[in-house]
């Protein structure tokens, strides 16, 4: 017989295909196989619902569900009897009991060939199935056929009586004669593959219950890797995170606590069960592979020696784990865990090796060999020492060798070189000349690689330097390391002596220490005086030159004039685009971008941590990707115990997004949560002005912006002042207040004369356009904003320009597309009002038309799968009335008169949707 062994992936298509196969012809037997957790039972239940919708009766049988001794139900008869009795009333046949009683006796007898038991079983099953078929066509859906020794006789008996039969069984149970016989007898054998990516995401979002944060989705996808599309793994990991309090609802989203922490597979996962089945060495070997981040065959002898096991036994166990799908081999021959979540579970749950334990144990054995004058690979030994325990004492010669290897690896392998330098620092007395030199080298490597936790460990035991500092100042080195740790991790470094360095105040009025600037959010004064941001940094050879430190210092102080002077002192041209980008980043305290502009390739832009998350907030807000921006804000809120300056800045961006979306209460809460740090006075006024404007309080917004802008200009604080003035001019123009618009334009032009940066040229063009209703200036400003990728500014200004432009259509279309993409409900309503005011056709979002067509196609597919309107609404996250509306439109356009005709037209290719 023909067999279809193709892998099925789209669950709705799976259900539709199985339903069609069961509906065509009498007496078909289909076998659906797949690994544990792949969703066989869910597909079987969906097929049952679909068949019932077509008018068939369904008899579900769960093998192994009958209350009998394990192994006693050899043929699954007890499970069949249990299922029929549970549904006795549904069959409404008084004579059914007479046919069921002999089968029940056979089940109690336990089976066997003595006394003609097997022929009796076949005969009585035929009588029972004939009786069940009298009331109408009935389908038998049997789940977990692998749980009984011989499922084939029962299922083939049902097929002979005309039943369409669908049975599921495990694919990864190993040799099993019972299911092998069943697959031989089947008309078709289908393998259930993983979910499609979109189906996996839909399943995850439904299971979460609350709207899942985008960062949590990304973290799960990265941790599970190829197992993300395995429904059992996905749902099990989600449930495990909820049980472990790793998920929390924060401002309406289900978010991941401590996103930097690894996500591990749940303890009952089938992969971990296979590890237990692979022998006593398997848990140790798996955790070794996880801790080592992959091993090769050449590493096996050393692993076997470390474990005190035989080499052949380790090799056999490794083969078993690869065959079981627990480990995978890459083309280079290295063996890795199947996904990061499995590696995390191996290290956390098997309790064999944690952290650096494995590397320390191997390093000790290699050092012992070296002391016996045996041949040892010095590079491998150095790597194990670098990753091993700080308790190891390799000796002075090995310490020098580590430094030599670090120098050789610095260019091509900076991450490895940083580990080697950190390992040396652990073995040098703090404050000494050599410790200072190695710390200087480590600072350079950490900036290139982003491994700031290495710096935290390196300066944890820092003490006062002994003697003259020499060419390198130990205090400057330690202060620089402590600042980098605090900036990038969001937590102050440990150790009182190190914190004291950050708290030192420099001479001069209004100066403050770094800790107070970054963690304190001072409450007094109209603004931080010029030059009073972080404590003055000293140039560190090979790390940051003194003039580069001055640029960073001036930029983070928020003083654009001082920043330009420091920039020119480095020999760089000014004005220029890089200086403009530097000032724009510093205005919103985007420290990561500041470092990147000053240091270039010597600095690695972080993806995670406080600065990495905040950089995503700023960049996503500018690109009008507000969902991603809000996800990064939530990540900041749930990462680390301390509030930093960028936490408060991120809350102001969140307030602006919520206000534009019409979520005014949330916007006010975000504003209240942001401490009134003087460094953020301009950004705070910008966010508050936007909130007043979106609430319809235009006059109040203008008054607030004018008051704060005058105060900031008097104090010489220009950070975000251009952003505030541009918004205020737009509000005055929208509120038709030409006097206020003219005064705000005058302030903008004055700021441009004082500063002269290219970004301010754009602000002047836009202010002149809005205040003077000048489309030429508006086009110049819009082109400059598009060149910078500032879509949020376009979204905010385009509706105002559309009120006086000769051709408002392009402005309204661009604004409408942007507002639709980021969910700015208030701005969408404003765009519609301008559209009515100018009497032009309403703009239509192309993305929305495509989405409507996609929704119609999905509804037709789900109808073909046998789902009701309510089930379709739940699947697509729509209301039931919306589904009915789509169906009405489909009936009117296609000429179909029923759901059955619609599904049939779709299957035959006669149906086209929008």
TrEMBL record:
PROSITE patterns: HTH_LUXR_1, HTH_LUXR_2. Keywords: DNA-binding. Pfam families: AAA_16 (PF13191), GerE (PF00196). Residues 845-910 form the HTH luxR-type domain. CDD domains: LuxR_C_like (cd06170). This is AAA ATPase domain-containing protein. The keyword DNA-binding applies. One of its GO terms (molecular function) is DNA binding. The keyword Amino-acid biosynthesis does not apply. GO terms for biological process: regulation of DNA-templated transcription.
């Amino acid at each position: 017989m023909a067999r279809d062994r193709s892998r099925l992936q789209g669950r709705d298509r799976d259900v539709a295909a199985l339903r069609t196969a069961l509906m065509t012809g009498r007496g078909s037997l289909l076998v659906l196989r797949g690994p544990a957790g792949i969703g066989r039972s869910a597909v079987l239940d969906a097929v049952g619902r679909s068949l019932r919708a077509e008018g068939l009766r369904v008899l579900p049988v769960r093998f192994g569900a009958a209350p009998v001794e394990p192994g006693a139900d050899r043929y699954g008869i007890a499970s069949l009897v249990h299922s029929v009795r549970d549904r006795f009333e549904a069959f409404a046949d008084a004579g059914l009991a007479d046919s069921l009683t002999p089968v029940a006796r056979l089940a109690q007898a336990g089976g066997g060939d003595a006394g003609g038991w097997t022929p009796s079983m076949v005969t009585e099953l035929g009588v029972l199935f004939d009786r069940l078929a009298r009331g109408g066509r009935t389908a038998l859906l049997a789940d977990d056929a692998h749980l009984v020794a011989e499922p084939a006789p029962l299922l083939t008996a049902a097929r002979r009586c005309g039943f369409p039969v669908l049975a599921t069984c495990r694919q990864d149970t190993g040799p099993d004669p019972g299911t092998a016989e069943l697959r031989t007898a089947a008309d078709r054998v289908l393998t259930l593959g993983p979910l499609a990516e979109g189906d996996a995401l839909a399943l995850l979002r439904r299971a979460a219950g609350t709207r899942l944060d985008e960062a949590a989705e990304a973290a799960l996808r990265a941790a599970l890797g190829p197992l993300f599309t395995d429904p059992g793994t996905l749902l099990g990991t989600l449930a495990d995170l909820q049980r472990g309090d790793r998920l929390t609802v924060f401002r309406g989203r289900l978010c991941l606590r401590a996103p930097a922490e690894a996500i591990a597979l749940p303890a009952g996962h089938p992969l971990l069960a296979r590890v237990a089945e692979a022998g006593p060495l398997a848990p140790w070997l798996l955790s070794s592979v996880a801790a080592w981040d992959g091993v090769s065959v050449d590493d096996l002898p050393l692993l076997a020696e470390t474990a005190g096991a035989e080499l052949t036994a380790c090799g056999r166990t490794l083969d078993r784990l690869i065959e079981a799908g627990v480990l995978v081999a890459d083309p280079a021959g290295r063996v890795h865990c199947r996904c990061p979540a499995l590696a995390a579970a191996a290290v956390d749950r098997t309790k064999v090796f944690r952290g650096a334990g494995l590397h320390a144990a191997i390093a000790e054995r290699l050092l012992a060999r070296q002391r016996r004058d045996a041949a040892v690979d010095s590079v491998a030994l150095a790597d194990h020492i670098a990753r091993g325990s700080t308790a190891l004492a390799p000796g002075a010669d090995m310490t020098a060798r580590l430094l030599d290897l670090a120098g050789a690896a610095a260019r091509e392998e900076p991450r490895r070189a940083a580990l080697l330098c950190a390992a040396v620092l652990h073995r040098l007395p703090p404050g000494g000349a050599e410790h200072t030199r190695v710390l200087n080298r480590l600072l350079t490597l950490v900036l290139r690689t982003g491994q700031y936790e290495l710096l935290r460990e390196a300066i944890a035991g820092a003490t006062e330097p002994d003697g003259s500092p020499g060419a390198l100042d130990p205090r400057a080195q330690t202060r620089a390391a402590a600042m980098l740790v605090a900036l990038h991790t969001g937590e102050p470094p440990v150790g009182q002596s190190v914190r004291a360095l950050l708290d030192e105040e420099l001479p001069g009025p209004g100066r403050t220490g770094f800790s107070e600037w970054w963690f304190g959010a001072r409450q007094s004064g109209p603004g931080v005086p010029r030059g009073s941001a972080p404590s003055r940094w000293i140039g560190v050879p090979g790390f940051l030159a003194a003039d580069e430190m001055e640029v960073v210092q001036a930029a983070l102080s928020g003083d654009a004039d001082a920043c330009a002077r420091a920039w020119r002192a480095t020999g760089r041209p000014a004005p220029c685009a890089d200086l403009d980008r530097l000032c724009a980043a510093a205005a919103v305290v985007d420290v990561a971008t500041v470092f990147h502009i000053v240091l270039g390739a010597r600095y690695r832009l972080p993806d995670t941590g406080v600065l990495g998350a905040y950089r995503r907030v700023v960049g996503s807000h500018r690109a009008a990707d507000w969902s991603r921006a809000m996800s990064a804000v939530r990540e900041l809120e749930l990462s680390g115990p301390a509030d930093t300056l960028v936490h408060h800045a991120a809350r102001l961006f969140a307030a602006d997004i919520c206000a534009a979306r019409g979520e005014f209460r949330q916007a006010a809460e975000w504003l209240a949560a942001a401490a009134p740090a003087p460094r953020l006075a301009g950004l705070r006024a910008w966010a508050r002005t936007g909130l007043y404007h979106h609430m319809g309080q235009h006059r109040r917004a203008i008054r607030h912006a004018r008051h704060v802008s005058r105060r900031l200009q008097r104090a010489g604080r220009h950070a975000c002042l251009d952003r505030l003035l541009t918004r205020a001019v737009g509000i005055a123009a929208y509120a038709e207040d030409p006097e206020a618009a003219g005064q705000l334009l005058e302030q903008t032009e004055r700021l441009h004369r004082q500063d002269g940066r290219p970004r301010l040229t754009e602000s002047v063009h836009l202010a002149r356009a809005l205040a003077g209703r000048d489309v030429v200036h508006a086009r110049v400003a819009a082109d400059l904003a598009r060149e910078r990728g500032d879509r949020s500014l376009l979204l905010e200004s385009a509706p105002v320009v559309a009120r006086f432009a000769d051709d408002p259509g392009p402005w309204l279309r661009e604004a409408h597309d942007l507002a639709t993409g980021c969910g700015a409900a208030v701005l969408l309503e404003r765009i519609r009002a301008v559209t009515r005011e100018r009497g032009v056709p309403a703009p239509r979002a192309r993305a929305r038309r495509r989405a409507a067509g996609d929704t119609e196609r999905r509804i037709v597919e789900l109808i073909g799968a046998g789902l009701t309107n309510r089930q379709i609404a739940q699947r697509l996250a729509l209301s039931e009335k919306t589904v009915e509306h789509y169906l009405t439109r489909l009936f009117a356009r296609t000429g179909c008169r029923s759901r059955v005709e619609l599904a049939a037209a779709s299957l035959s290719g006669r149906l086209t949707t929008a």
